[in-house]
Amino acid sequence: MNLAFLIGHFPPGAFGGAELQAEGWARRLAARHRITVITRRDPPSQPAIERRDGFDVVRLPVSRVPLARTALDLAAISRAIGRLAPRPDLALCFQTFISGLAGVRAQQRFGIPAVVWVRGESEYALRGAWAARAIAPRVWARACGVLVQSDAVRAGLLDALAEAAPAVRAAVVAKLDVVPNGIDLPDAVAPPGGRVLTVGRLIPEKGMDVVIDAVAGLQGQLTVAGAGPERERLEARARRHGLEARFEGFVDRERLATLLREAWVVVLAARRGEGLPNAVLEAFAEGRPVIGTPIAGVRDLIVDGVNGLIVPPGDPHALRDALARLSHERGLAERMGRAARETAAAYAWPRVVPRLEAALERWAAR
């Protein structure tokens, strides 16, 4: 197949799970398919056109005019798709807005089937979000196909449609498929270190403040991997607790692997907004148990008491108790680590790539 990937940002850069997954998919699908990634040129120093890892990257200028940015982005993406030769068989759009919207517009203009990959809870949280409520259901209804990362996200999206846009729910159900994230599975698992690790953007939704409070209550050692606007506030919070906390900022794959080996447990205290968190999968791949909250996506990965523990969001006391249990109950962390590794095996790239290929081939044939 000849595939166009549409995504707002694309590595290198300090981006999140959607961007890193898009890079992983492009790299692996390029072994058998022609891949062109269309994304923003941000920062402007990035090359406009680049070929790497067997695929092409086309980066478009970013408008600095806030009110005109969406319209200009949509026009630029449409022009870029129209210039591709040969014309793509299908456009895979990572996230509903703006890539999904651009994809369905290109589908109408050029006849290129568009598949929208919903990447997390924030995309289908339609209640109270008038812009998402007006745009997202129409994008999903017009797309040739819709992808989600987990069964929990599928159920959440359909529930949101039943409430906000019941007229299009049946149409979306008919074209909705589940393909999970992929991960690299290390050949061997290293012995656990002594630190608690949390990974994610430093924003309120990720619950990093809860992790700091919980670990401080045990006088543990904490590593925070991630960048974001909350860093200064979180560092000050850790200092007030007298917590031995190390803030790493954004880390690449190699550094993250090192941090996972230094850890004995990984914590994901997100309050909302997850899809199928890379942080959980990567921890599982390294044989580390995860303490997480019961939000969409996480519920598909963590089996409470088997490969990790589930705690309520926003509750540092419950998280502290879970850490204490995992630390003090003899053999529990080791058993959960083995189960975590077994869970991760189902998400190894060789297992998930054929699932996406089959779905895309089916939609392209239509």
Please give the domain count.
2
CATH superfamily of the largest domain: Glycogen Phosphorylase B
Largest sheet: 8 strands, mixed
The level of helicity is 40-55%
Basic shape: globular
What's the tally of helices?
15
By CATH, the architecture of the largest domain is named 3-Layer(aba) Sandwich
Class computed from helices, strands and strand pairing: alpha/beta
Radius of gyration: 21 Å
Average of per-residue pLDDT values: 94
Report the top-level CATH class of the largest domain: Alpha Beta
Give the amount of beta strand, in percent.
15-25%
The arrangement of helices and strands along the chain is: EHEEEHEHEHHEHHEEHEHEHEHEHEHHH
| CATH topology-level fold name of the largest domain | Rossmann fold
What can you tell me about this protein's structure?
The structure is a single chain. This protein is of the alpha/beta class and 366 residues long. The protein is 47% helix and 18% strand. It has helices spanning 17-29, 66-83, 96-110, 121-124, 130-142, 151-164, 166-173, 208-218, 231-241, 253-262, 278-285, 298-301, 316-328, 332-345, 349-365, and strands at 2-6, 34-40, 49-52, 55-60, 90-94, 114-117, 145-148, 176-178, 195-199, 221-225, 244-249, 263-268, 290-292, 308-310. The strands form two sheets. An eight-stranded mixed β-sheet has the order 3-4-2-1-5-6-7-8, sandwiched between helices. Helix 6 runs antiparallel to helix 7 (166-173).
